[in-house]
Amino acid sequence: MTVAVNPTQTGEPLFYLADEHPHPEGYSTSLGFWIYLMSDCLIFAILFATFGVLGANYAAGPAPKDLFDLNLVAVNTSMLLLSSITYGFAMLTMQQNKVAQTQIWLAITGLFGLAFIGIELTEFAHMIHEGATPQRSAFLSAFFTLVGTHGLHVSCGLIWLVTLMVQVGKFGLIEANRRRLMCLSMFWHFLDVVWIGVFTFVYLLGVLR
Amino acid sequence: MSTNTHAAGAHDHHHDDGHAHSTFSGYMLGFVLSVVLTAIPFWLVMSGTLPSKQITALVIMAFAVVQIVVHMIYFLHMSPKSENGWSMMALIFTIVMVVIALSGSLWVMNHLNSNMMPIHQMSGMK
């Protein structure tokens, strides 16, 4: 992995690989995808920072205490956590080359993810119905941006999940599909990690304030 | 749970290619820990057991940090050895960036807030 500085015959340093050898397909995919996730992490960090700065500016509008239903958030959190473990089971059955079981676990994961998105959209619709729109206060703008971005990620994950189920159905658990499922696994668990930050800093600390 | 470890473990030894292979017991342990680490903060906030809000806030933030580490280890299979240490390197770099961005924004904006002219003085300047 390390790019060594190869001194040439003349003694000049060479800042690239002199003898580039071919790598197998997908050799660096998981590291590359990890680096993508880290950059995604920075997006969420900025949104968390924005929420941290603006989260108490209610503009005489509704505060977290008036808006958030912690029971609903607890249900939502468990949906995402359950989808994480069922994706884990999908990865385990994939390692054992069981196509049908992998598909079933992926489908269950998708249903939990769908339930998460459904509950979140219900919550949003309820808030907007009560007049707590993103335009109402800086707190609500920051809230909808942060939680909405997370929800958008989960929705994209769901589309990706369905795509991979079609792929696995068509081509089976070939090497490329294993690699793709591995990437989605990292993506899915990463979104669960972000959600830990959301329910702690937005919902629990918000209600506490 | 230990029998499952052996069953899954025996399967894994053949195609060990440097990636951290997941086991059933690993996922279950991570899941149980996550459930506990999620349930306690929700219970603390919803019941208001702890005497002060500051203490509750600090405790639930500590729980969040622990749960993030649990997810990293058991679900994302992070280890110092994965990808020859490069994923850990990227992670550490990201954590440094996130800490600077978060603490810096909160710190600077908090000072800006306290140095703002109060609204009643501003209206007197008209």
Automatic annotation (TrEMBL), chain A:
Subcellular location: Cell membrane
Domain of life, source organism: Bacteria
Annotated GO MF terms: cytochrome bo3 ubiquinol oxidase activity; cytochrome-c oxidase activity
Record-linked InterPro entries: Cyt_c/ubiquinol_Oxase_su3, Cyt_c_oxidase-like_su3, Cyt_c_oxidase_su3-like_sf, Cyt_c_oxidase_su3_a-hlx, Cyt_c_ubiqinol_oxidase_su3, Ubiquinol_oxase_su3_dom
Transmembrane feature ranges: 33-60, 72-92, 104-126, 138-166, 186-208
Annotated keywords: Cell membrane, Electron transport, Membrane, Oxidoreductase, Transmembrane, Transmembrane helix, Transport
A GO biological-process term: aerobic electron transport chain
GO cellular component labels: plasma membrane
Membrane topology: Multi-pass membrane protein
Gene3D superfamilies hit by this protein: Cytochrome c oxidase, subunit III, four-helix bundle
Residues covered by the Heme-copper oxidase subunit III family profile domain: 1-207
Function field: Cytochrome bo(3) ubiquinol terminal oxidase is the component of the aerobic respiratory chain of E.coli that predominates when cells are grown at high aeration. Has proton pump activity across the membrane in addition to electron transfer, pumping 2 protons/electron.
Record's subunit section: Heterooctamer of two A chains, two B chains, two C chains and two D chains.
NCBIfam families reported for this sequence: CyoC (TIGR02842)
Family membership noted in the UniProt record: Belongs to the cytochrome c oxidase subunit 3 family.
Protein name, UniProt field: Cytochrome bo(3) ubiquinol oxidase subunit 3
Automatic annotation (TrEMBL), chain B:
Any GO CC annotation of this UniProt entry: cytochrome o ubiquinol oxidase complex
Pfam families given in the database record: COX4_pro
InterPro entries (UniProt xref): Cyt_c_oxidase_su4_prok (IPR005171), Cyt_o_ubiqinol_oxidase_su4 (IPR014210), Cytochrome_c_oxidase_bac_sub4 (IPR050968)
UniProt keyword Transmembrane helix present: yes
Lineage: superkingdom: Bacteria
Molecular-function GO term, any one: cytochrome bo3 ubiquinol oxidase activity
GO biological process, one term: electron transport coupled proton transport
Membrane topology: Multi-pass membrane protein
Residues annotated as signal peptide: none
UniProt KW keywords: Cell membrane, Electron transport, Membrane, Oxidoreductase, Transmembrane, Transmembrane helix, Transport
Subcellular location: Cell membrane
TM region positions: 24-45, 57-76, 88-109
Coiled-coil region: none
General function of this protein: Cytochrome bo(3) ubiquinol terminal oxidase is the component of the aerobic respiratory chain of E.coli that predominates when cells are grown at high aeration. Has proton pump activity across the membrane in addition to electron transfer, pumping 2 protons/electron.
Family affiliation: Belongs to the cytochrome c oxidase bacterial subunit 4 family.
Subunit structure: Heterooctamer of two A chains, two B chains, two C chains and two D chains.
Protein name: Cytochrome bo(3) ubiquinol oxidase subunit 4
Protein's organism: Bradyrhizobium stylosanthis
